[in-house]
Amino acid sequence: MQSAWLSALSFLVVSTLVGVGMLAVARVLRVKARAEGSALKTRTYECGEEPTGMAWMQFHARYYVVALFFVVFDVEAVFLFPWAVVLRELGMPGLVAAIVFVLVLMLGWLYAIKKEALRWQ
Amino acid sequence: MTASVGFGFMAACTLVSAIFVVRSKNLIRAALWLGATLLLTAALYAMLDASFLAGVQVLLYVGGISTLLIFGVMMTRKHEGLVVEAETVNVPRGVFAAGALFGGVAAAIKMTPELDSGVRPPVVTANDLGRGLLIDHVLAFEVVSLLLLVAIIGAVVIARKRDPGAEVPGFVRRPLAAKASSAKPVANEVSP
Amino acid sequence: MNALFRGASYGAVIITAILSTIAIGIWFERKFAGRMQSRLGPTIVGPVGLFQPLADVVKLLQKEDIVPRDADRSLFDLAPILATLFALGAAAVVPFSATAVTADLDIGVLWILAIGALMVIPTFMAGWASNNKFALLGGMRAVAQAVSYAVPLVLAVMVPVILSGTMQVSGIVQWQQQHHWVALWPVIPGLPAFVLFFLAMLAESNRIPFDIPEAESELVAGITTEYTGAKFTLFYMAEYVHTLVGSAVGASLFLGGWDGPFAPGLHWMVLKTLLLFAAVYWVRWSLLRFRSDQLMDLCWKWLTPIGVFLVLAAATWVQLMPGGR
Amino acid sequence: MSEDASEEKVELQSARRGRVDPHLSIKHYDPEADMMLLHFGPQHPSTHGVFRMDLHLDGEVVIKATPYLGFLHRAVEKLCEKLTYVQQTPIVDKNDYVAPMTNEQALNMAFEKIMNVEVPRRAKWLRVLLAELQRIASHLVALGTFTLDLGGALGGGSTLFLHCFREREMVLDLFEELTGARFHYNTHTIGGNRHDLPPGFDKKVRAVLDEIELRIPDYARMSVDNAIFRARTEGVGILDGELALELGITGPNLRGSGVDHDLRRDAPYAAYDELVPKVIVERGGDCWARTKVRFDEVAESIRLCRLALDGMPEGPINGYKAVRQPTQAKVAGGQVYVGIETPRGELGTFLIGGGDTPTAPYRLKIRSPSLHALSAIPYILPGFTVSDAVAILGSLDPIMGEVDR
Q: Which DSSP category does C165 fall into?
């Protein structure tokens, strides 16, 4: 394992400490209300009205499609990164290969735009 | 030595979070635990000097696939107000299947002499991957794009399945991004 | 062990620096916004209101910690910590000067993108765990937005990677340094890529005109609706950290990082970062907000193909320029 | 001309066909949908006070909207029945709390009509001046709060909001100098006005008008001409003129739907028969058109204010015998209706005199334009998203004090 990864790991640990530390400090500093945990106070906010039903509900497939598109385009990007770093060695054939790769994907993009699959409602 | 202890610890963490994925009653939590498992797998990759793969694992799997799964879970319910519950059934059979798979893979590893030679494998960088993809396996590289194209088309088909409120009497779907010019002209002759 | 210690010590210094910059930054933003709106901004706490952010933090930390009855308690508590962690995380690979870098990973750019992609997890967690309809709507919007804008972000970031041929952030800065980025920065892929990056960064850190997830006039406070006290502070802070770290990333990937005449590299890097940071707030206090469907349209119909085009343009540039410049 | 009319008729029919059913039964809605009932208000940042809508959402699309009113009900009408005529003026100031001046004007005009009191010419011109100044202030608030809804309290919206309020402050300063109050002016009385213009006042008014006129292009750049603003408002919340007339919607909301109707021109009161305003009409019927009408009316009001200052006649400002005690103003009986064009539309006062005491009305009914504007919500909101709900509500510019009274 490269040493840089260890440094990055310990950086993340320090970052976590920021959040945890803040919550710990707040635990000491914060006021304890007399009516802590009272039914009125812990009710979910919904503009002062009693909430109707829970917020945990079913969602529509269009959200799913956006995530799917993200994954597809990210996979594309992930394949392009190794290409990007060796582009100079590859020369023209490498460029052509990538252009073909991207154009095929953009066909899919064009289809999606035509069918308005990415329209957010 | 420290490295293998660290690796063992990470592997154990991965395993524990994986168990949480299957044992978790709440599907959303299961999906989040899956995210944690995938993240820890990325850490394992990083420990094995596969930096690029580790980055890709986080970017695609934790960022993308778990989001996809969360959305998928959010889509699965029919009734408002119910926490998604999932029950683990057939535990013995599951354990048996997992054990069999583990045994098979372990045996395969054991039987492959190169994997057990104790020699550290070469570090594969993104540059090596790039050369491999675009010089040795160009065709595979191009086929991947076709695969992704199929994925996009599939996604579009899913999305087009239903237009909410399409055939409800009295409900009119307005064009969301209508321009003012396409707005309905209005009465002018009525003036008191 | 040495590496671990390096990470911890550099991390402590960099994180402290980031947090204090943000404290000043909040003061600066409020003064700046005040001037734009023909008012004074904070004036009471300290000289010219300089201690206002500090007072705010102390006030927020003293607030009562209210957890909604119907919330998923553990996820509710975990989300703000993760938000801070992932907002800060990208700073690990940013070189603040030629030497001041915590972990100069060979896949630095990928690390930045990966950590950025992780940000959707705490956002969704907060929105879902609150069991509040506004929070859930905000959370879903936030996830969809972050996930969508990650695509132009990745494509924009790929342009400097292609031009310099490395994914190491310090490598990209060095490449710019060697090629006199000010004079020779290829305008065709470089400048539009920077604009694309800036837009995607605004969206990723939920700043106006892309602050749909929070959208306080519609969704009250989006995912932070149910959060009080320290947990709210963490979210609030994470947003600013995200913007600042994003600015630092932008400065090093597109604006030559520590490279600059007359002054030490650190000064230039800080200056460029702060200028970008200020630009974000300039935009924030002058524009209105987009609607979520317009946001998605903008991303998928315009920014994504432009990003793809820029990537190909950069690749062509590299191939056509003698010596790959 | 006839061709035009027939074309319009066809379009009207299609507009009616495409109308949303506000009583849509949710049971008949798609059972597959991800339905959510969201209480929007009363404690919500952008409901312009205390207003509640129950939104049935499919994802983010509103499929049914049910407004609930009455959170700010203060029984003003009933209170007026208990007070003497003179005492009522400061009470109604609080109805439309963004434009108090026009409230008291409407009330006092009803008193004058039922008591047959002639208003002197100078008082009429003064009333026009005050009403138009109030219109400027009120439309600035409407524009500012609308961008606040669109751009958020923590963004560009608040920038325009504060700029608008700065100009509104200048108008309020003028009112303060004239009447001594910033809100409860109590300057309109039976038969005219209470406060005459102090010396040098017209110069100050002109300075303020010049200042506001100077800033209008800036506001246009930040609102009606801004690309994001247009993207957020164009084609959103389309209210066709037919529906608007059916619902009794008046004022800029009606004129934004292409109906050329303005009481100042069509049924002149005060000095509007001499100072005829240009009526601004937009045909879009969407949020942008409504805002644009208000925006252009500011400029028109500035013109009218200047005209009123130029031609302000000399003379007394009150034509009614001096009232020493509140009980001196008496009405034996009869009923009147007076409607005036406030910044929000037709503010009507229906008054039945007499009853148990001659010093108080038997019944006072205030017809408030905001109430009618809100009645459009179940029709124009469905089909749009939650974000648009905020924009549509903001563009109707309702004032809850006036809605609930």
A: T
